[in-house]
Amino acid sequence: MNAAGPPDLPDRDRAGQQGAEPARADAPLPERYPPLPEPLLVRGGELADVVDDHTHLDSLADHEVDALLAAAARVGVARAVQVGTDVASSRWTVRAVERWPQLLGAVAIHPNEAPRLAQRGGLDAALTEIAELARHPRVRAVGESGMDAYRTDLTDPAALRAQRESFAAHVAIAKETGTALQIHDRDAHDHVLDVLAAEGAPERTVFHCFSGDAALARRCAEEGWYLSFAGTVTFKNAQVLRDALAVVPPGQLQVETDAPFLTPAPHRGRPNASHLVPHTVRAMADVLGLDTQELALILTRTAEHLYGPWYDLGDPGPT
Ligand SMILES: [Zn+2]
Hints:
CATH class: Alpha Beta
Strand content: 5-15%
CATH architecture: Alpha-Beta Barrel
Bound molecules: zinc ion
CATH superfamily: Metal-dependent hydrolases
Number of domains: 1
Helix content: 25-40%
Oligomer: single chain
């Protein structure tokens, strides 16, 4: 485990306090989404307060975000980390965390975007803007950044260089701003480990949508890193992932949607959203041999350790 404390608390004068309208608790769930599962509870029968560690809401209209946040709150998933993947979605993330108190933000250039920007000569300017956006008091993570050999051909030296430079720059931004790092690692485990070894991982480092085996999970856990599991852990053919999950200390786990992608069973093929997190939490509890209520509490505590408090927008937060 990593004994680091929560991030530096934000400066009250910079907190997003422009009067956001509260999300409508009765907003109907758009029809394309799967129905609400049984709510996650904690002992005593109260609703859990689990955080969706990684979601993308930037393609939605504001009223749809209202509806999805309200639906998730009804099943014990009242909060989320909204994640940017380029300059536009990272700017949107800052606007979103000023509007919705349920959201904290992560900002970054996605590893598949980095080579494209580099080719056009725009990577440095984009990274400069990400560094600025990362200073917003409700942006509490840098991500998703990392390495991707699935959609980018990393045998191309220019593409490899762009991804590595971009990832290294994001590691530096996370350290400078004292925020967590959310890593995207797709078919690129060795590249990710190389960059982390060369640059030194930030104190709070999270592998988003962990996709390695038990050996990698054990290695990450020993380093004090955190592993966030998505709906993929519920897939029938994902025993390797369940074996990986089984070796992680529960206090180093997170749960996420990566919405609108990676919808958990039994709703594969339909769009994902935070209200489906209970399916994934229940599958994780089964694998870990833990009571779902106990796991829900541990996940909440870890999310707050990673990202700090989600106080109301009108409330300056702890001082
Ligand atoms: Zn993502």
